[in-house]
Specification:
By secondary structure, the protein is mainly beta. The protein has strands at residues 12-16, 23-27, 39-46, 55-57, 61-67, 69-74, 77-82, 86-89, 95-99, 105-112, 118-126, 130-134. Strands 1, 2, 3, 4, 5, 8, 10, 11 and 12 form a 9-stranded antiparallel β-sheet that branches. The protein has a 3-stranded antiparallel β-sheet with strand order 7-6-9, with no helix packed on it. The chain contains no helices and 12 strands. The chain is globular. 0% of the residues lie in helices and 51% in strands.
Length: 139
């Protein structure tokens, strides 16, 4: 059995090279390296006023808003969401999330049909110095 306590995750901090509002803390609690076979997950937190950064993912993603309020942009559409909301992001469709509330936005992303994900952002992140996150490179 594989279990993860979302309240005890060690998060990594990422900041946009050019856009400092592109700022989050994140980790991948379940990916192929952790034993998953047909799905992958990402957990991230965004401070008030900050955003994740526009990007595409190599698999369909279900965004689950665990805490806070977000503006979710998927393709050319956007909607305001809050705790308890879910949003479906099709594979390879650009999307972004902004924290529009006064508390930390906490989100769990679940990717279907793949245990490793490649996320390609429009802007580079520090400390990675790249705009690509490939979970197959994570141990």
């Amino acid at each position: 059995m594989i279990t993860v306590d979302l309240n005890r995750l060690e998060l990594n901090e990422f900041v946009g090279v050019l856009e400092k509002k592109q700022h989050c803390k994140a980790t991948f609690p379940l990916i192929g390296a952790h034993g998953s076979k047909e799905l992958a997950t990402v957990y991230f937190e965004i401070a008030p006023g900050d955003m994740l950064g526009r990007h595409t993912d190599s698999a369909e993603e279900l965004l689950i808003i665990l805490e806070g309020e977000a503006e979710v942009e998927i393709g050319n559409e956007s909607i305001c969401t809050k705790k308890g909301s879910v949003a479906l992001v099709p594979k390879d469709v650009p999307h972004n999330l902004w924290n529009i509330g006064s508390e930390t936005l906490k989100v769990l992303g679940v990717f279907g049909g793949a245990n490793n994900i490649v996320a390609t952002f429009e802007e580079e992140f520090l400390p990675l110095n790249t705009n690509v996150v490939d979970t197959s490179q994570i141990e």
